[in-house]
Amino acid sequence: MSHPVNPGNYSESGDYPPATSDPATGAGYTDAGYTEPASGYAEPVAGYSETAETGYGSSAYVAPSGGSYAAGSTSTSSSGISDVSVGEIMGKISADMSTLMRQELQLAKAELTVEAKKATAGVAMLAAAGVAGFFLLMFALITLWQALASLFDEDAWSALVVTVLLAVVAGVLALMGKKKMQQVNPKPEQTIETLQEAPSALKPSNR
Description:
By secondary structure, the protein is mainly α.
């Protein structure tokens, strides 16, 4: 950068030449030394400066780099991770385990209710088969009695027909009741499956 200077030589004592300056920019040599142009960037002076921003006469520190820090102001940085104590974590785990156990009990109750309904239907059919079997036995005895008396009377054939009919009904009901009872599962399969999956769900995942 060239600076306008006064033609001539320096004095032997090393003083600056007579003061000269550029009227347009104000740059040049003065008695105090070289003066930069008025336009351009002015570095802030480091130190404390008063500010009326808060109305209380608080001071603001001006850093050498140009930044400032107002007294009394705070700056917080959110790291995205909240500070949680071990007690809070254990409390949450305990609450989650209690909720899980309640849900598992409700699931087991629902499964057992469905299975109980199946068992009730099967027991009812078996009870009906038992009643029919009772009458079957009764009519079988009557048939036998009438058969023995057939040598003298033909009414035994009617008792035999009734006996056969009751035998068919009792056999059908017994087979249906047995089929229903085979469908009953005393173990709550879904509850057992979820309980087996619970330990693996509580383990921390390896990433």
